[in-house]
User: Fold this.
Amino acid sequence: MNEKPKKLINKKGLRLDGRKPDELRPVKLKVGILPNADGSAYIEHGKNKILAGAFGPREMHPKHLQRADRMVLRCRYHMAPFSVPERKSPAPSRRENELSKVIRDALLPSLFVENYPRTGVDLYIEVLQADGGTRCASITAASLALADAGLPMRDLIVACAAGKVDNKIALDLMDTEDKIGAADVPVAYMPNLNAVTLLQMDGKLSPKEFDEAIKMAIEGCKKIYDIQKEALKTKYKIIEQEEVEE
Amino acid sequence: MNEKPKKLINKKGLRLDGRKPDELRPVKLKVGILPNADGSAYIEHGKNKILAGAFGPREMHPKHLQRADRMVLRCRYHMAPFSVPERKSPAPSRRENELSKVIRDALLPSLFVENYPRTGVDLYIEVLQADGGTRCASITAASLALADAGLPMRDLIVACAAGKVDNKIALDLMDTEDKIGAADVPVAYMPNLNAVTLLQMDGKLSPKEFDEAIKMAIEGCKKIYDIQKEALKTKYKIIEQEEVEE
Amino acid sequence: MNEKPKKLINKKGLRLDGRKPDELRPVKLKVGILPNADGSAYIEHGKNKILAGAFGPREMHPKHLQRADRMVLRCRYHMAPFSVPERKSPAPSRRENELSKVIRDALLPSLFVENYPRTGVDLYIEVLQADGGTRCASITAASLALADAGLPMRDLIVACAAGKVDNKIALDLMDTEDKIGAADVPVAYMPNLNAVTLLQMDGKLSPKEFDEAIKMAIEGCKKIYDIQKEALKTKYKIIEQEEVEE
Amino acid sequence: MSSLLTRVKLKQIEKAIEEEKRIDQRTLSDYRIFTIEQGVIQKAEGSAKIFLGKTEVLVGIKVEKGTPYPDTPNNGVMTVNAELVPLASSKFEPGPPGEQAIELARIVDRGIRESEAIDTEKLCIVPGKQVFIVFVDIYVLNHDGNLIDASAMAAVSALMNTKMPNYEIVDDEIVIKQGYSPLPLKDHPVTVTIGKINDKLIVDPGLEEEEVMDSRISIAFTDDGRICAMQKGGSGYFTTKQVSEAMKLAQSTAETQRKKLKW
Amino acid sequence: MSSLLTRVKLKQIEKAIEEEKRIDQRTLSDYRIFTIEQGVIQKAEGSAKIFLGKTEVLVGIKVEKGTPYPDTPNNGVMTVNAELVPLASSKFEPGPPGEQAIELARIVDRGIRESEAIDTEKLCIVPGKQVFIVFVDIYVLNHDGNLIDASAMAAVSALMNTKMPNYEIVDDEIVIKQGYSPLPLKDHPVTVTIGKINDKLIVDPGLEEEEVMDSRISIAFTDDGRICAMQKGGSGYFTTKQVSEAMKLAQSTAETQRKKLKW
Amino acid sequence: MSSLLTRVKLKQIEKAIEEEKRIDQRTLSDYRIFTIEQGVIQKAEGSAKIFLGKTEVLVGIKVEKGTPYPDTPNNGVMTVNAELVPLASSKFEPGPPGEQAIELARIVDRGIRESEAIDTEKLCIVPGKQVFIVFVDIYVLNHDGNLIDASAMAAVSALMNTKMPNYEIVDDEIVIKQGYSPLPLKDHPVTVTIGKINDKLIVDPGLEEEEVMDSRISIAFTDDGRICAMQKGGSGYFTTKQVSEAMKLAQSTAETQRKKLKW
Assistant:
């Protein structure tokens, strides 16, 4: 935990990568980049590089997993062996299994699952490079992939974390800050409904600090939400253009 | 095997825990203690603490395991990681797999499997603490769990072992005696039919010693049988009372 | 790789086991030796000892693997734990998985799969002793097993390798030659159609050397083909005799 | 329970909650009665069994020697595993832990780890070479709802019940001495789960309530009232206002629970 | 064999047994003819192949260096594994050993282990550090009934055929020398299986008899006639009288078998 | 694509090939345009991403310390793994690598290993004790045919992009120094796959062509034009004449490709 007790915020109040405490890392989003998936998106969030691909809604197999009254969402969060400093075995770890579940739980509130009985959607998330905050970046990309697959939604889901470094609440921790820092609060959010769909925490925070953190995280979510919407528009603009060109 | 060559029987003819050679450890049985199982029982046999729960008869899944002419009994004997001195991995060992099979074979002769075609009963046995003789105690409890699930039976199955310690045949070996002792003969038995339904042995015994051991084990079975029947009655007494109270 | 840099060909031009460069190891074949399989064969090729057994054509299970327009061939190449100098774990290795696939691909061209829709054939190959060239010997035996199961065929498939040892192209490398030698080219072949159905290579060869190797391998195949046909006839002779005797 | 019966039952639950009542007569913020028994497994270094309503969870602790992680050479190791034993519910199946069991283990793990409940520095035997490993095995014996809180309470109780062997270091080798010492603990996290049904928050959901529940949030609190772990679950959401309410509800419940637990 | 044919065949077996006959002309206490060939796998340290009727089992032995178990630092290790190779029967499937294969391996293991057939102390190289591990791999090549006895006989034959490398200890390191010595054996257990069909006991059941068999009992005997392992199998039972009868039948059969085996 | 559409498409492909044309306007011996980007994963020691048509493959290289194989104590180790990531095709499923992924990894492995592309002697740290292990992880991100060539090119590109840490040996212990050196390479194998459709040979088959393809042959060539690996696949065959033709076609294609790759 306290392996390298460096200062995470310098005298000027800036973080290791020069950000201010409430500053996001750069976020880039692309929609529809996987030709074979029904919907897909790619995110670069800081040094995180993550692909999400969705297949469906399609008939659910095996049949005993079908639900007569709703669509089933299956979700796999997976890290590439080369995505982290020490090679990760490709077999899913307990952490990956847990994240697959919480990410699914974070995305479900946006979907009208009752409109697609007996079907299934398979959502695959591949972390190609990890640098702290992969679950949030995964959710941001995955929600776009579901939208790209044509699924009607209550709202896009966007996610961002806030945490505590050097005794200060800070937005969007990168890997080193997450490891050395005192706490991390990842949040997934639907801005239109003011709805929190993922909320986790580790570390230690007073209730007041937690309040501050979740507010900051939601502000971060809102900023990324704009980028998300832009990415979706861009994709559809391109498609419209293509249709015109044909 | 002969790691600690202690005396297992002292000058007074008593064993490490003060028992006489043909004396059982204390046995406690409770029936119907698991609210969600269709039938259940709990046994404390010496320091062994074992739970058995039965689900069924119910439609057998997956379907290809159904038998048109009979009920199928599936049985899982499993040890809790903390049940033994060195933590046991929760993945089933070869020993647990073998015991699951011999326990199933020991219980089947009591059941009218042909009366429940296409159905299945799942029997789960969890050893919470082990002290020698877990397979016998498991069978004793499991038979009660099946009875508690309402399955008609030829007789209850009761089990007990006898073995050889310090060159003497002795009843119901505990862990240390089993490890240091010269032989162990677990026996499962239906008293009403004088039928042996499980019989195993390891160690070395002359045919004469074996005869003595199996007889002693059966005497032990008969004593535990009384406790078994009592436990079953107690459960039904309580239920009758509850019905009256309602 | 170059652990023991011995000479593999001596001054007289002979190899470690006294063979000439273009000489096969002794090959023995028996057909129909497994009573429970629908077709079977046993090969001793040098010190390789390999059994092949085929079951089918029969209804394919599980059903989702059925193909409406053809028979499905499943193939498992497996080595006995005691078949090699260091005990091999019985769980299939990546090498065994790959060989199962290339052997299946080598055998399929001989079969009229479209004549047996919805059926499956299971082919099991067990290497009891390995001494270099097991994939070729396996194919030679497996093709006989399929023939013995009564499957009509375009031709028998026969296999043999050629390689490079001490800078010379040589036929049918045994284990030591394979390990120390410079290259190995296993070939499976249907003589009647002049068709190559398996072709692999490792090591380094110039295109000219490769040409020489594949030609030599095919000559080897043709010789083994005669033994194959003889083995098949012998089996049917014996059966005819048995029928006469009855 | 047949499908029709289930639906009738679920309607009843929803209706009751609507009227700020619950089918087992609790108020929305009532916790079920629980009892904890420590030391039930004598062969384990520590153990505790909890009954929370009809939910029954047994936790056993084994303490064994092992090697530390390379990045924390001076710290002992804790590992948490959860088994949803199939006799606890017809919905549990034998086999390696599934998603639900893994999530359960990881929530309990985080509560203990992030509160720094175990003084892992005191579990170091020879730095970088040998440390004590504390295995926390959660064994769910009957499922009647709120496995998270029940498992978390049983786990901390079991740790409080855990003894480890006394030892000396002689020439860099560990020599076991007579007697035992308690496992060194620095904190005692209390975890409280709040469920949401039709926009109402309820404390300590029972099994049938879980079936109609939108979502849940579980929050762990340290001795000094700080939050040390949190997990939202379920396919629904919480508005930010509901998050605040849930937080307050969890906080006050944790204080009450801590008193009952006498931690 | 079709289902109808099967039923007809099974009726025939039962009828024959009723009249104290068997469908292959054996008496109830006849053992099938068997042949054993040793040394069939030259690359293994030991091997033997048995034909018992049409049942065919190959056992290969590998001897490798490894570490002893902590509680038996001065003893070599034996491990038995059985593979029901899928080409031996349409009922065997590829994949990790199932219940039947595990039971088979463990019965054979117990016969060898409990008779102390292998002198494991002589397999110790450096106490607590290095010992020889004897891998006994049972490979069932054709299933025509009574795999237990066939595998047990083949396993002991293979052990009797096993050679291990000569070696010296130089500075706590093992140095392999020229030549081989036989594996040190102290006993040669013989295992006999008795089946029960309609209250009649039969020796060495064949495959079709196994299909109508209530239950079986397998008993292993040491050189000096003591019992060293036993296993009841099958979904039926033995009365105590039948247990005694089976014991006597197994005992006399084991003596006859031992003579044929020349052990 | 529906089953009917598929069949129509496949007929079109066959018809085109018959007329020595291809549905994407290529000649039979044309390779698709490809682009390679190196260093896309900064956290890996090496990486490269290739687009070959719409086929997209990412290869990441990790270099870690480990122990050598006993029979090659002076050589570093290379291991190749391939994942057919399920988002790359609706036909790929999550789970451990299947037959297709294993074959892919092993073909790429052989090309690199048999050409002796990596100078494994230079990866030895302490002979017999510590060496560098090079993990080559193939990650297929979109499947549009000819995964073999795409993966092989990306793998070699990634190796050419790989840096390893500088180090010194002090008292038999490795001490990492500042800076990095390139991974020592001695060769740069180029792999070319030829497909066969209705007795015509085609270069670099696309996904739809693979669906009608009889069989394929993949050949790897070293810097000096020697063959270093080969693999026939598919359920059809090649006549000996076709093998020679395929060889020549692969050879000339490899030369062209090598120029484009600037290796």
In short: The first helix of chain F runs from residue 3 to 18. Chain F touches chain A at residues 40-44, 47, 54, 58, 60-62, 64, 81, 83, 85-90, 94, 96-97, 135, 137, 139, 141-144 (CB under 8 Å). Chain F has one domain: 19-261.
